[in-house]
Amino acid sequence: MSFFQAIFIAVLQGATELFPVSSLGHAVLVPALLHWSYDLHSLSFLPFLVMLHLGTSVALLVFFWKDWLALFKGAAGVLGPRIQAESLYILFLLVVATIPAVLIGLLFEHMIRDFFGSATPVAIFLFLNGLMLLLVEKLRGTSPRRGVATVADMTVADALIIGAFQCVAFFPGLSRSGATICAGLLRGLQSETAARFSFLMAEPVILAATVKSAYKMRTVPLAPGELHLAIVGAIVSGVVALASTAFLMRYFRNHDKWALSPFAYYCMGAGVISLILLHFSL
Question: For residue range 50-66, what is the model confidence (pLDDT) as tens digits?
Fold first, then answer.
């Protein structure tokens, strides 16, 4: 992998991990469309992948450090009994939301990604991701609960359903953040609240993926050049992810209605164009 390819993939990872457009889908489609030869699933690519995930994880931690600090201080009882109860409840919601992805991931992740991991099905799933975003925008007004303004106002059922929606991201081309935000909107959450909970629950998920990949690479020999690329990739991915998170939180705060529509049209267009290019081998 060249230096240019490493930077390109790092920028792509940092942006698409949080935008509701599927980071894994782009990681599969872009090399296929540009005829790049590296293998995302090879052991030699693992160090770079681990560092990309680490960069994204650190970016989320930096952006939401006040949220996490308040949660843990509150849970420890530093801020009083009322805040302690609320903080413990929010942490419990995050644990509940993480359980479905852990269970499904352990059982079926490799089977799903091996079966659907080639470029053509990924392009189809990217198109379907756009349809999902658009459909949810049309259906969200039918929720009997409207305007859930904070994570603390969520129910355990909300967290469990949002966590279950997260599992669709095991299909390359379907977005984790897109699915979880969609689930939140269908449960009556405001766009900003749905995005905040989605990004908070992304931290343990991305960190777990990083640890899992790091464990797999424990026997992989690492050349000095590969290490340098991985470090640069982590920095670039982290900076882009931080900027993406800041943009998205501001965007969802100011666009509660039809907030997902631009991403929906992008995914549908990118999916169709990718299918055409792949079919004609352009």
Answer: 888 889 999 999 999 99
Q: Where are the domains positioned within the chain?
A: 3-279
Q: What is the DSSP letter of 278?
A: H
Q: Number of C-alpha atoms within 13 angstroms, CB side, residue 21? A: 23
Chain centroid to Cα 238, Å, comes to 14
Residue 248 · residue 18 · CB < 8 Å = yes
Angle of CA points 98, 158, 258, to nearest 5°: 105
Q: What CA–CA distance (Å, rounded) separates 163 from 159? A: 6
Cα 218 from Cα 50, distance rounded (Å): 12
Closest alpha carbon to 154 in 218, 73, 96, 240: 96
Is pTM beyond 0.85? Reply is yes
d(CA 131, CA 175): 12
SS3 189: strand
Cβ atoms of 183 and 162 closer than 8 Å: yes
Name residues whose C-beta falls within 8 Å of residue 109's C-beta, 6 or more positions apart in sequence: 170
Identify the residue whose tokens are 């995005």: 195
Cα dihedral sign for 140, 144, 147, 149?
A: negative
